[in-house]
Design goal:
The complex is a heterodimer of chains A (about 325) and B (about 500).
Chain A lengths: L1 H9 L8 H28 L10 E2 L5 H4 L1 E2 L6 H4 L3 H33 L3 H12 L6 H12 L5 H10 L13 H26 L3 H9 L4 H26 L6 H6 L8 H4 L2 H12 L2 H29 L7
Antiparallel strand pairs in A: 1-2
Chain B lengths: L1 H21 L10 H12 L4 E9 L7 H16 L1 E9 H13 L6 E4 L2 H6 L7 H7 L1 H7 L1 H5 L2 E2 L2 E2 L2 E2 L7 E7 H6 L13 H11 L4 E4 L40 H15 L14 H6 L3 E8 L3 H9 L3 E5 L4 E2 L1 H5 L2 E3 L7 H13 L1 H9 L7 E2 L5 E2 L35 H11 L1 E2 L13 H19 L5 H15 L1 H18 L1
Parallel strand pairs in B: 1-2, 1-3, 8-9, 11-15
Antiparallel strand pairs in B: 3-12, 4-5, 6-12, 7-9, 7-10, 13-14
Helix pairs in contact in B: 2-3, 3-16, 6-7, 7-15, 18-19
Classes of the chains: A mainly alpha (about 325), B alpha/beta (about 500).
Chain lengths: ~325, ~500
């Protein structure tokens, strides 16, 4: 839609009075086409923004949302009050930071590898296999992990570790393994989707670049680092910026379901979303949960602006806005 | 020109489609409703009114819900010129959907309450004392003054408990065949510590079974209690609230430490699942699958029969404490009128039928006679010919929810006198001194959230014996303190003292 709009702007009719009006007259079908999308955006994405006032109110159903009392920042207090605040913030940012890096690197690597496969059938096959976990529910994933790690029946404890002569490990009570386990699970599950996006943009690269490079005697490695990666960089930056915007949101299923809500692991599995869930499942306080949401989106917003700013300083044409 | 009409046409079609999607589904009343209207309004002298009644369910919506609703309406139409619309909502979506319906002002007249304190402080419920006195005499009579008073918050009642087990006694539910087969003596068992001998025998004789399992999402001890939790376990009355009204930190008591050491012993001896902390299999399912022999639970008359049905094996119970009534046992299932209700008096009138009219209670509990159940000669009921638990069109089986359960038929396999027994059970239960006190955590919300997280981190591990209490209990207590449990206890004590003065 943005492209269409910019094209219209490029072709103004010089010398004609009220050109804007005449433009509207000429392209009104296009505006009409845009209308449902705009209406949808307003209803679905902009109107709910007023809901942010819930974060500053003590909601009482008898008085309604607008009649409830204002409480200032009281609803936000619990997010910063205890020593847990440090743990959940640290966990959220470090995990998501690690996820963004590993995800991007692995997805690009897989995309390049897939692109090099000459037999179409196998490309499709591998692509489907990599994508499959992405389509699975986290609950199912959590049981797959459980099937590996359980004390009573787990594959690792019952089959693999005895073979190696190692005593069985109580995975669900040992914190030290979980940063690795969660990263592996997250990558295994999510990589397919990103990989498909990168593969699509790699396929879109003009083959002439590679032909020229081959003629000049460039090795495969040189081609990858000098052609493929620079050319898909805009897509990578775009996807990464999107991910950074959500750095303060965590995948609830991953941090709650996969460790089977195991208490002894909370030190390394408690993130903002699970903290809010655990605390409010009993209180059911709308104000406090909205406060958490408002806080997360505010930080996400600031981070997107900041990282876009950095990208702009480094290479202007790759910035989002 | 032709092109242009094409555009407009497409747009119009789109708009039509959108408006059709958003169209309201409740166009027109139920067929057959109007026909009887004329006579009925004369009968009760009231305008016709539809009561929307929301409750949560655990499985799918019963196929024959509409038929049951029509039958109920025949009765309530004649008596009150009121019809009811049953609105079952899956428990998983219950909380969200209630929040949404109430904030958006959707029609709602009667709801089940499972978080009384929360609902009252959030203003979700209407005060109903006066309405009950005017339109709900049958309800008051059935509930009785003791339990009715337990619903009062600052002197005002916002809901009434359904008539069911209003007290609870705790104990062990265990496979009877195993106890008999190995001649295990359970006569001397009346405390948690005494169970060790039973478990040892079970473990020695049945090495493939875990002697005791835990309920999903809670610890082995999660379904056992000797205290009045005063709502959330953060600040409790020990000894079931029989001594005084001094709120203490349960986790810092010697009794708690003792319980943890007991469970730790069980765990180390292999009586508890090694995976207890993340065990996702229900206790009943574990027993049914032959993987476990027993579990702790709170009980009521007819509990053995209920659990035997659920597990498909004969179960027996070993009592570990007296029956106690606490605010939590009374308020965990109530009926109330949401604050947006249009005509609250009509809600209460219908609710009154649920506490007094045998036919309505049986319709809600068991469905339609001859279709969903049949009465045998001994007065007990069972599935009709050719119908089973799998094929019945109305298998809610939630009699404890809908009003006065004591008016309902007794299912085959239960004691025919089960309701009489339960009535006595309720009457004879010892009552916590804080029965009727409803805790309002609003002023310490931040602390409660933090303390919940700490409890989540330690309780399941400690109370299943997975964590060593000597090492982890002090850490738990430390974290509780820094999360602000003392502030919660002080606030609770303050509210409890204020409440006690008004009694």
């Amino acid at each position: 839609m943005e492209q269409a709009a910019s094209k219209i702007r490029i072709r103004p009719r010089p010398g004609k009075a009220g050109s804007r009006w005449s433009m509207a007259k000429k392209f009104w079908p296009l505006y009409l086409l845009m209308l449902p999308g705009v209406v949808y955006m307003i209803i679905n994405n902009y109107l709910p923004m007023f809901g942010i006032i819930i974060a500053f109110k003590d909601i009482n159903f008898a008085k309604g949302i607008f009649g409830s009392d204002w409480v200032g920042f009281k609803n936000f207090e619990y997010l910063f009050k205890t020593e847990d605040a440090y743990i959940i913030t640290r966990n959220t940012i470090l995990y998501n930071g690690a996820f963004i890096v590993t995800h991007t690197v692995l997805a690009i690597a897989f995309a390049i590898l897939l692109n090099e496969i000459r037999k179409k059938f196998f490309t499709r096959l591998y692509q489907s296999i990599i994508l499959l976990p992405y389509l699975m529910s986290m609950v199912i994933v959590s049981y797959l992990v459980y099937a590996l790690l359980s004390m009573e029946t787990g594959f690792l404890n019952k089959t693999v570790l005895p073979l190696l002569g190692i005593e069985s490990i109580s995975w669900y009570t040992e914190t030290k393994y979980w940063p690795a386990i969660l990263t592996i699970v997250h990558n295994w599950k999510g990589i397919g989707f990103l990989c498909v996006i990168y593969l699509a943009s790699i396929i879109g690269i003009d083959p002439e670049y590679y032909e020229a490079a081959t003629l000049d005697g460039a090795s495969k490695r040189q081609q990858i680092f000098s052609i493929t990666i620079p050319l898909i960089a805009p897509v990578v930056i775009f996807m990464t910026l999107l991910a950074i915007g959500r750095i303060f949101y965590s995948d609830f299923g991953l941090f709650y379901q996969v460790p089977m809500n195991s208490g002894p692991l909370l030190e390394v599995t408690n993130v903002i979303d699970t903290y809010v869930y655990r605390g409010l499942i009993f209180l059911g306080d709308l104000g406090m949960s909205s406060a958490a949401g408002a806080y997360q989106s505010l930080v996400g917003f600031v981070l997107v602006i900041l990282s876009n700013y950095v990208v702009r300083r480094l290479s202007k044409e790759n910035a989002l806005f | 020109m032709k092109k242009r009409t094409g555009w407009v046409g497409a747009l119009l079609a789109l708009m039509l489609l959108v408006s059709a999607c958003g169209g309201n589904g409740d166009s027109g009343k139920k067929p057959g409703g109007e026909a009887a209207e004329g006579q009925a309004s004369q009968a009760s002298g009231q305008e016709p009114y539809e009561v929307v009644m929301a409750f949560y369910i655990f499985g799918e919506v019963p196929r024959d819900l509409q038929l049951v609703q029509d039958e109920i309406n025949k009765i309530s139409k004649a008596k009150l010129n009121t019809t009811v619309k049953l609105l079952p909502i899956n428990i998983g979506a219950w909380k969200n959907q209630m929040n949404l319906m109430m904030t958006s002002g959707e029609k709602l007249d009667l709801i089940v309450i499972n978080e009384y304190s929360n609902d009252v402080t959030k203003g979700r419920l209407l005060p109903i004392n006066e309405l009950l006195e005017r339109h709900g005499q049958g309800i008051l009579e059935a509930v009785g003054p003791d339990y009715y008073n337990a619903t009062k918050v600052k002197g005002i009642s916002y809901g009434v408990p359904s008539i069911r087990d209003l007290a609870a006694d705790y104990g062990l539910v265990v496979r009877k065949d195993l106890i008999d087969k190995h001649a295990i003596d359970v006569s001397g068992v009346n405390a948690l510590e005494d169970l060790e001998g039973v478990f040892r025998e079970l473990k020695d004789n049945e090495p493939n079974l875990v002697p005791i399992t835990n309920k999903t999402n809670t610890s082995v001890l999660g379904t056992f209690s000797t205290r009045d939790s005063l709502g959330d376990d953060f600040g409790v009355l020990v000894n079931n609230g029989q001594d005084d009204l001094k709120v203490v930190n349960w986790f810092a008591t010697e009794e708690y430490a003792e319980q943890l050491r007991t469970v730790r012993k069980w765990y180390e001896a292999g009586y508890v699942l090694k995976d207890a902390v993340q065990n996702q299999e229900a206790d009943v399912a574990m027993v049914k699958a032959g993987k476990a022999a027993s579990f702790l639970g709170h009980q009521k008359p007819g509990y053995e029969a209920q659990q035997s049905r659920a597990t498909g094996m004969e179960m027996m119970t070993i009592k570990l404490g007296p029956a106690v009534a606490k605010t939590s046992t009374v308020t965990n299932n109530m009926w109330g009128v949401p604050s947006g209700a249009e005509k609250p008096e009509r809600s209460i009138q219908f609710l009154n039928l649920m506490y007094t009219d045998k036919d309505i209670v049986n319709l809600l509990d068991w469905g339609i006679e001859g279709k969903h159940y049949a009465i045998a000669e001994d007065g007990l009921i069972d599935y009709p010919e050719g119908i089973s638990a799998q094929t019945t069109g109305y298998g809610l089986n939630m009699g404890w929810m809908f009003g006065n359960q004591f008016l309902s038929h007794v299912w085959k396999g239960d004691n025919p006198d089960v309701w009489k027994e339960m009535d006595e059970f309720n009457r004879n239960a010892i009552k916590s001194k804080a029965l009727g006190f409803t805790w309002d955590p609003t002023s310490v919300k931040a602390e409660v959230t933090a303390v919940y997280n700490v409890a989540d981190q330690y309780r399941r591990g400690l109370e299943s014996g997975v964590l060593d209490p000597d090492k982890e209990l002090p850490a738990f207590l430390n974290k509780l303190e820094s999360a602000g449990i003392n502030k919660i206890i002080a606030e609770k004590q303050k509210q409890l003292d204020e409440w006690a003065q008004t009694q």
